[in-house]
Write a structure and sequence with these properties.
Helix content: 55-70%
Distance between the termini: 67 Å
Shape: globular
Radius of gyration: 24 Å
Structural class: mainly alpha
Number of strands: 5
Largest sheet: 5 strands, parallel
Amino acid sequence: MPNAAGSRLLGLDAAATQRVMAVAQALDGGRAGEAGDLLVPLLQRHPGHAEVLRLHAGILSLFGAHDDAIAAMHQALARRPEDPLYHNTLGSILATAGRYDEAAEAFAQAARLKPDLAGAWYNLGVLLVRSMRNDEAAEALRKAVALEPGNFGARIQLADLLRAENHADAANAEYRAVLAQAPFAGMAWWGLADLRTHRFSESEVRELEAAANDPRASSRDAIATGFALARALDQHGRYAESLAAIERANVIARRHTQWDARGFSASVAAIESAFATVPASDGNLGKGIVFVASLPRSGSTLIEQILASHPQVEGAGELPDLPLVINEESRRRGAPLQQWAVGCGKDDWQRLGTRYIERTARWRQRRPVFVDKLPSNWYYVGAIRAMLPAARIILARRDPLETCFSCYRQMLENNEYTRTYPDLAAHWRDFDRIARGALAQHPTHVHECVHERLLADTETEIRRLLAACDLPFDPACLDFHRTERQVRSPSAMQVREPLQQDTRHSLRYGALLDPLRAELGLPPFAAT
């Protein structure tokens, strides 16, 4: 679209144009407060100007006012319906609000309007990865890279997809190619660390230390580099330094987002209370669906890999569909789940269950059973039982110290409770309470798979797991590491190897982890 940038500013005088540019710079820098202050006089003088509305939408989105941001962006688009940048902005706002389907369509429309808009292809690729549409994502990302070879984000995402497809050498080469041009690219360093086939050399430790202090690095780069450095230091037995690197990375992360542990626990308690009075429906809706839920790093990817090795089962990965269906209903009702669940009738739950089944239909095209392995779905056990009464729910559990420590040392984006020991322990207790309640309330449809038991008596536990999913035993499940499929989780490389009998990391750190033990109510290391 020639002269599009200039046309967006038509109708503004020189002073207003300068202010628009200042607002845009503040937004690009993530300084929402500054951008908002600068925008106030523009909104007063030009409330209907498309570019002013677009910037206003971006600011609202940064402050979490998602509905208002989307409304403002639709107003802007009504004035410039053929502007690809506006559709791209709408996509970003919708994605932030968790409305992935609409976001994907907005990005796709931006790309249709301007096929050489690399940013739209990149955003579309990222969104499709999030939605587990990996083949489509790879195509979009390749277009982004072809249009903009210096788009390191797209190249790193492509490398992540190569890792998911078990092409470790190709992924390693792609991460290396990015680092050759941008040694401060934290996500490339973290990609190497998370391959788990790579051991960092002493010289690479020094490169990581330099990258962590590179002035060109963004906050996200610094966080990712910090976690990669911690992994490298761990490999060299420098455990205290490894913990210090994680702490520094988490300090940076907490400058941007704080976790409200008390508020989350209150929400969990409210949902638990609401579903204590919501009986599970009868019927076959949800038959052939297996949910695997847990805290991260608890063995859920291993469980999915075992199930996906069965000839009747498709491993779909971490699908966003269940929370998206619930969020859709919450928007429609103007209230959160815990408020509308009690008054929701059987027909309402059936409608929501049907909506989920429609959204996930593609996962039943090859096999009659599929696994939805989004870990945070433990939060929605009650809703699953009401919406999809024939579905099976597997709750993965691992030793609390190992779970929390593994979460702490893994770079888990959008899991802000992993930044401090107190928040991790509080989150563990929330999960534990919901898991115990679900097992007691729904013993025929909820099964607990304990990681340590699976390691100790693998065949027995796999037989129990398959029985809980109403599946016949198949010996292929014992050789799960031979199953070829895409795996997009931090455990992608691990589940392609035979089981290790001891996966504990905490022993190496000894008393260094006593503060975490104290938060979990466990005795200190010397007493164990």
